[in-house]
Amino acid sequence: MNITDPFHDRDGDKLREECGIFGVLGARDAAAMAALGLHALQHRGQEAVGITSFDGREFYSRRGIGHVAANFSSGQAIAELPGMMAAGHVRYSTTGGSGLRNVQPLFADLASGGFAIAHNGNISNAMFLKRDLVQKGAIFQSTSDTEVIIHLVATSRYPTLLDRFVDALRLVEGAYSLICMTPEGMIACRDPLGIRPLVMGKLGDAVVFASETVALDVVGAELLREVEPGELIQVSLDGEISSHRPFGDQAGRPCIFEHVYFSRPDSIMGGRSVYQVRKAIGAELAVEAPADADLVIPVPDSGVPAALGYAQQSGLPFELGIIRSHYVGRTFIQPSDGARNLDVKRKHNANRALVEGKRIVLIDDSIVRGTTSLKIVQMMRDAGASEVHMRIASPPTEHSCFYGVDTPERSKLLAARMDVEAMAKFIQADSLAFVSIEGLYRAVGEAQRNKACPQYCDACFSGEYPTRLTDMAEREDQGQLALPVGKVA
Amino acid sequence: MNITDPFHDRDGDKLREECGIFGVLGARDAAAMAALGLHALQHRGQEAVGITSFDGREFYSRRGIGHVAANFSSGQAIAELPGMMAAGHVRYSTTGGSGLRNVQPLFADLASGGFAIAHNGNISNAMFLKRDLVQKGAIFQSTSDTEVIIHLVATSRYPTLLDRFVDALRLVEGAYSLICMTPEGMIACRDPLGIRPLVMGKLGDAVVFASETVALDVVGAELLREVEPGELIQVSLDGEISSHRPFGDQAGRPCIFEHVYFSRPDSIMGGRSVYQVRKAIGAELAVEAPADADLVIPVPDSGVPAALGYAQQSGLPFELGIIRSHYVGRTFIQPSDGARNLDVKRKHNANRALVEGKRIVLIDDSIVRGTTSLKIVQMMRDAGASEVHMRIASPPTEHSCFYGVDTPERSKLLAARMDVEAMAKFIQADSLAFVSIEGLYRAVGEAQRNKACPQYCDACFSGEYPTRLTDMAEREDQGQLALPVGKVA
Amino acid sequence: MNITDPFHDRDGDKLREECGIFGVLGARDAAAMAALGLHALQHRGQEAVGITSFDGREFYSRRGIGHVAANFSSGQAIAELPGMMAAGHVRYSTTGGSGLRNVQPLFADLASGGFAIAHNGNISNAMFLKRDLVQKGAIFQSTSDTEVIIHLVATSRYPTLLDRFVDALRLVEGAYSLICMTPEGMIACRDPLGIRPLVMGKLGDAVVFASETVALDVVGAELLREVEPGELIQVSLDGEISSHRPFGDQAGRPCIFEHVYFSRPDSIMGGRSVYQVRKAIGAELAVEAPADADLVIPVPDSGVPAALGYAQQSGLPFELGIIRSHYVGRTFIQPSDGARNLDVKRKHNANRALVEGKRIVLIDDSIVRGTTSLKIVQMMRDAGASEVHMRIASPPTEHSCFYGVDTPERSKLLAARMDVEAMAKFIQADSLAFVSIEGLYRAVGEAQRNKACPQYCDACFSGEYPTRLTDMAEREDQGQLALPVGKVA
Amino acid sequence: MNITDPFHDRDGDKLREECGIFGVLGARDAAAMAALGLHALQHRGQEAVGITSFDGREFYSRRGIGHVAANFSSGQAIAELPGMMAAGHVRYSTTGGSGLRNVQPLFADLASGGFAIAHNGNISNAMFLKRDLVQKGAIFQSTSDTEVIIHLVATSRYPTLLDRFVDALRLVEGAYSLICMTPEGMIACRDPLGIRPLVMGKLGDAVVFASETVALDVVGAELLREVEPGELIQVSLDGEISSHRPFGDQAGRPCIFEHVYFSRPDSIMGGRSVYQVRKAIGAELAVEAPADADLVIPVPDSGVPAALGYAQQSGLPFELGIIRSHYVGRTFIQPSDGARNLDVKRKHNANRALVEGKRIVLIDDSIVRGTTSLKIVQMMRDAGASEVHMRIASPPTEHSCFYGVDTPERSKLLAARMDVEAMAKFIQADSLAFVSIEGLYRAVGEAQRNKACPQYCDACFSGEYPTRLTDMAEREDQGQLALPVGKVA
């Protein structure tokens, strides 16, 4: 199969959001709507997709490896998912038959009836909880951290399902935006810090939940509001909506990297246009780190809005100096006679006629391992650029994420291994600058970062993790690799 | 299969180039290089691909439906194609088993040995010639116009293969850029008018031919020059190159639409950067058709360079007001509850936060049927644009192409049915303007269009076809539909 | 896929054994041996197959829809299943992705470590037990009755796994031959009545368990003995064997239909050759129901041994009057011009030259719905047979089986609806006779059927079910269809 | 895919018929009928299948790798083949995409209109003719010998298609039974010696041609007669039948091995029941080569009729001492711990309880390489047989076939390498005997073999080839391997 992956590169040198979720209740073609909505969230997870629907009597599930379009665009696929309530999930996953066990929504027949759950995030004490559940006789069918929640619900002694669900969540630590389905209706909630996003919309009488507003746009729904950090919203089958705050009031700390890179530029997040925030980051960069150059060139496609902001602020012309192929697919066999770096050229090609003899500012969203940046700088030099000034629209990524983002272990993060000057040398740029963390907070609309209680989770930059990391701590006690194990979100 | 098609949209409202070709002689991994080169030409044909190689004794062929990456990225696929000479082809085609017969390179065992041919263009007297050949006992194995050339070669009485090949081409009318392989080496040629492009490069001792320079870039080869209109270049197995001009000297008339839309912006065509020409068209448009507006917005992705040119010339800010999904795939089932135009939203989504309350200039490369333009104007209005001024980076497309471009029949071309004012009304824009044909010629670097003998083939705009159209004329005599029949190129 | 199914016909009019199981401990290529062994048991279940192996540290599983050869003949498939212990299962199942959940061996990670189970039989109180387990928080991943056993083991409070396993079996009623794997070794057992078969063999130092002796033959193993009814045999990883009798001593009642039809004729069952038993049934028939005829003709292939016995006893010549196609595959589109009964001819064709003008005795193993018998009698008449005398090598099948055999509901069994005379009329035979139940007992070597305590389970003929049928009784109380629900075995 | 191959074993030690053909004109569902008919001829060719139909205006073709049921049982497949005339072909072939080029019916658009041809046999001067045609400019699309006929038709100067067709056949030497379709109707013919079979039947107003009568039975048609050797039958679209004898009168020499092995036992060939002929061969064997033994055992399934004949003649009991698995499929990975000959046990298993301590006569149809015979004799001894007497229902196969049967080269035929005594030693039988060639002629109903002019082609036994073998002779002149090259039939 030919998977074209323009935002996040499979072999690539990017952090990757691990999931997108979508739910709808009260629409005649709930599953068709879920398919469209998940398609709009495809950039959040490209390796597997699942949809579960409920027709008032039965739950129906369909899962597949690959893109939404490859699995859910046929009439037959949709016809297998009848009913007016549906929820779905896109994720990164291992491929293959057994991998399907981990594709969400997960589903279980509880004593109270069917229970389906779609999860974006990562539970940081999943291993700890699982060990205890297995001791008591629980049998796990997946290796997903999400399944812990189902078993906690199944074994809770509270009388109502909602109470059992809250009872379960109280034991769970980490990041979770959840969309659940029961025979009574839909439950959507965000963890107390609201680390991963979740929005609520409506389309006629139907209620819609999604990771990003772009999924509402695509199905024609109207944005109502974000699900609040720590909020649990219950929608009954006849459309009655109730909001609960089982964890009390607490300031949220949503992931700031959603603004930098994960979300689509046409989404609205925290009340702000992602596109405008990225332009604002570019403008901050232009002020903080100006460059004496002829052209501003984005690393496509994610660097485009910041590059526009940088260009408009600096007055330098914005130009497409790198052309991205839209047919990326897998790696090709390299001919032995070829010149160096053919593989990066397969994806990006220099617009030589434009770049030749010019001093350029290159704008990218982040640096992870640094290998791609090095190749792109070389490509610009090979195309005749006289100077290459790299500007990055985020602070240095020094720490791994344990909240549902696929990060390399810390020792592979370039910014964890060297300072900015050494990084500039490593990628062979004439100069290198990152936006400051304060500049980033200004771009998202804050006067400044609240040091005592930051408004966002910025742990990947600051190392300040807002929750306990029980499984991590245990593993470090045992001298094991510092990798999250309940790794599926 | 999940075919993502960002430049040209399958269901879409675009003219489509029908083929790309690539050949290499003298490289140790010729087939691997052909695969990479064809991958870079994927935008010229996305439905089928074939590569034929020669190892000094035998010819090897492999063909497939779908993208290059889906068919030729495995080591096994390349290992089936040994040898230091290879040629390949990407094309649009009907899918399915029997469709494979039409996938090029076509191959035949002639009395002189194997003969492989890859063709970009369209032979406008193919039906006429085929009828005569079948009368004499020839059996055709494909429905491709290209096969006519092979049979003409097979039945020619001249003593050498080169003479038989020229003998065949003398009988052929229309557009053809060809790469052929024989046991003696490679032959590349362009029709006397050079309607379709073909360039020549080198990589060490290897000689490379390709439809566009971007394919040279991707394999690491250096551009030597274009194959000239009417030129036939022969490369022997030991690398000796000889140039022939069997048709005498004649001014060429390359396709001007390659500059407007077909070619990749990072290609060099006729000595000019395609990107710079498109920016120049945008600048001409800004002079010829200014607009009182707040923002310049491209219809992504093909409208981007012209929009940059328009913005820089006019001083209006360039902004991404439409975000294109990179996961297009097939059409989804439409939920009955959805709002209108969900399908166009699946591909393009308005950047509402940016557009709301603004007067915008929308830049697109061309209008074919007009249906997409209508939807995009509506999308901008739904997102709150107060005025929408559409500017098109080519003159009105009034005539079908019979030289290897997939055009709807004339009666479906919006510009053949109405004048510009009516078109503006049809697409519901506040204003609509096309660049003039003179502006287009200025943008490609000519002082003016030579009316007596135009420097380019611009038949789709002017109706002035530079060759006879024998099959078309016959069909019109018989009162049949004016469709090209030898339809494969 | 082209599934040829000569013993049991998919669309057919036969009872179907629902499972075959195989296990081996102590062989270097345990999984390869399991694949071969299951292949020899393919007639016991043709729709799905699974193998689980253990390499001393980890369990490995592979499951597939279709035949053993289609799923486990590649070196790669076997290489995915390392270790010296393996167990596998063939079964009938629903096809499709989700169906894979029900393919055995089932596997669970218990607190005591991995636990794999392969089951032939049917648990007749599975629904009752499952309801209770779910109330306590158990989450079922399949719809298989077998999973009940795993949850009972997981939640048992006994200290050792063996005790927990026996504790679980004490709660279970019905038919089960089981092969289980734990990190300590293999456990094989049969229910107290030994309804379904299970034999034990050895090959060098390896211990082998299988449903039938033919699977021992095919892997080159030697038959040691049958696992006794109510016996539980434990084999440790280092090969130590211990036998347990947790249910006390009790006379067994193995399924008599295994001799009539399910087992392969080259298997030894209960110490007797299945082929010889079937010949003996034919001989009994010849004595009980002679016919004045010219030829004895078997309905291929299952009727062949009984027909040989009938022919030898009666002195009539044995001939192949019906030729069976070995390429059955799915149903074809019927041409409208065709004569009647083309579909049965696709599978069976009359040997007209032989049959014409003859009085024939047709021998079949059983009559279920009677539709196939009717067609075959007609085919013989169309081929010119002057008289058709049908003789059946089993008593009338009047009752459904709830012990792991797929039977139609009782109302569809021809023998439940009418007497022998009416059946003869229905199938349009000149005469019809069934072997008596006493004759059947003589053929398997008993002096006579012990009415108080029959030596075999013959419930399908006699209606005397040897266990409680809890789920059935509940359903009948509720007025529901009398179908077994924990239907997977 | 799971290909079960009971008559001819893919890896096996059997001669293989290479093709079966079927045609029907005048039936409303011609393609559905062709699919059923080819299914009944599946034993004549199991690797590829094609059907071409004609609806009065257009020809439609569909080809596939694998069984008829796998390719032509769906309603969609049949719906793609409209019209009242259809012809089809089953064959052995190389698998894979390019292999489809060789799947018949071959089709060409000639000046006279479409021409489809299905061929059973082999043209023994195909290479010679092809070389000449290519010199004149013909382009071959397959490597099939059959395509030579089409080019000869296409380039013939005779005015009518029938004349051109006869003109073509006059140049052709070897074996051919052909079914052709033109816009005027169907042509069926057999080579002057009628080496391969072809029969004619009717079903209502429809005319049917097929390789064997069993295909008529399955579609419900009635046998009219055989197409005579050297006869050409033309059926017009409106059903008018005319018979032509373009080659004059000549005695035919049909293949005698069709009676021994290739044809289905329920076919009538040359007016005789194949089943009865095989029984008669067995009876001849019993007279010519009696054995002092306890049981007669067939090698299933092809040895069964001869074994019945042997048993009835000798008075020894006929018993199934070898049980054949019906799930053969591909070869499995052999476990290293396994006993010898597991692979043959996978297909055949000894019925040990029957064989133990007995002196047996084993009946097989032929010995090719002898490897299978050796394994089966060993299996019988391992099962306890005290003596094994092998009897073969054909004379020793000493010569290769060049008329459409897949034979190993001569040097691999056991009978070409040693005399009967040495063969007995090689296969380790206590005695070995073949039926005499005179005995074989008696069994097919002749008083004796006419030495001057044998009534059958028996070249595989006698070495007397009834036609010139031009390609073979050329190759031997050049010292090349004695293999037929125009190898597809």
Description:
4 copies of one chain form a homotetramer. With 489 residues, the first copy, chain A, is of the alpha+beta class. Chain A has 2 domains: 16-252, Aminohydrolase, N-terminal nucleophile (Ntn) domain (Glutamine Phosphoribosylpyrophosphate, subunit 1, domain 1, 4-Layer Sandwich); 273-477, Rossmann fold, CATH 3.40.50.2020. In chain A, the strands form 6 sheets. In chain A, strands 4-3-5-2-11-10-12 form a 7-stranded antiparallel beta sheet, covered by helices on one side. Chain A has a 6-stranded antiparallel beta sheet with strand order 6-7-8-9-13-14. A 4-stranded parallel beta sheet of chain A has the order 17-20-21-23, sandwiched between helices. Mean pLDDT of chain A is 90; it is low at 1-11, 94-98 and 481-489.
Label this structure with key terms:
homotetramer, 489 residues, alpha+beta, Glutamine Phosphoribosylpyrophosphate, subunit 1, domain 1, Rossmann fold, six-stranded antiparallel sheet, 29% helix, globular, disordered N terminus
In short:
The structure is a homotetramer of 489-residue chains. By secondary structure, the first copy, chain A, is α+β, with helices and mostly antiparallel strands.
Our count of domains of chain A comes out at 2
Our count of helices of chain A gives 18
Q: What structural category arises from helix and sheet content of chain A?
A: alpha+beta
Quick one: biggest sheet of chain A? Answer: 7 strands, antiparallel
- Low-pLDDT residue intervals, each spanning 5 or more residues of chain A: 1-11, 94-98, 481-489
The CATH class assignment of the largest domain in chain A is Alpha Beta
Total beta-strand segments of chain A: 23
Cα Rg of chain A:
23 Å
Roughly how much helix do the residues of chain A carry, as a percent range?
25-40%
GO biological process, one term (chains A, B, C, D): purine nucleobase biosynthetic process
Domain Glutamine amidotransferase type-2 (chains A, B, C, D): 19-238
Family (chains A, B, C, D): In the C-terminal section; belongs to the purine/pyrimidine phosphoribosyltransferase family.
GO molecular function (chains A, B, C, D): 4 iron, 4 sulfur cluster binding; amidophosphoribosyltransferase activity; magnesium ion binding
